[in-house]
Amino acid sequence: MRNKLKALYELQEIDLRIDGLDGEKAQLLGESQALEAKLAEAREKIAARREEVSALEEEKGALEANLASENDNIARSESHLKEIKTQKEYQAVSKEISGAKKLIAELEEQILQKINAIEEINGDIAKREADLSEMETNVAAQQAEVQQKVDALEGGIAKDAATREETVKGLPASVMKRYSKLRDQRRGVAVVEAKEGNCMGCNMHLPPQLYNTLFRADDVVTCPHCQRILIMKLEVQD
């Protein structure tokens, strides 16, 4: 049983190392995802600005169509002036031409505003695209560094997993079942040291009679408070 307790303690150390490596890996992958999200956000903003340009281009096209229509109307009205014989009719057509010219001036102003807005947005898009290109280069470098670290962590995890497999072979199924259940219940820590009269898992005082059993190391002893498996570290490592 002494050797089994030693193996159980070693298993706990291996599992805690794997937990730590998995945590580091998850953090690195989270950083990588955050970088991707940052790129996606930048691309979405550029796409949104392009949609603004598309809408403005459509509005500008409609204004230009109206402008062309009004110019045609003026041309027809001015041609009609030559055929008018009464002063009253002449004044009415002249008034129509004047109104159309006023409308044309307004349309031309609106078209100019659309052109200016389109140019401004296109300038913003060009800047955003340049920033995005630089960001993509930086993110690619950062992700390559992250992947290198992840690969190293995965190598460590694989090595510890192989050691774990060998360690588990020497432990009874009943002990492993208890160990696994405690790992789930106690945030990954199933085996703790009994030291100076206390359980190092929950820091509660242990009954003195437990120490005789712990020193003998002839059975699996658990803390009466937190139910973690107790070991006397020096005894186990002998």
UniProtKB/TrEMBL annotation:
Start and end residues of each CT398-like coiled coil hairpin domain: 11-186
InterPro entries: CT398_CC_hairpin, Oxidative_Scav/Glycosyltrans, Zf-RING_7
Domain of life: Bacteria
Keyword flag Coiled coil: yes
Coiled coil: 18-152
Domain C4-type zinc ribbon: 199-230
One family name in Pfam for this protein: Zn_ribbon_9
Protein's UniProt keywords contain Coiled coil: yes
Key words of the record: Coiled coil
PANTHER family, per the entry: PHOSPHOLIPASE C-BETA-2-RELATED, SCAVENGER RECEPTOR CLASS A MEMBER 3
Name of the protein described by the UniProt record: C4-type zinc ribbon domain-containing protein
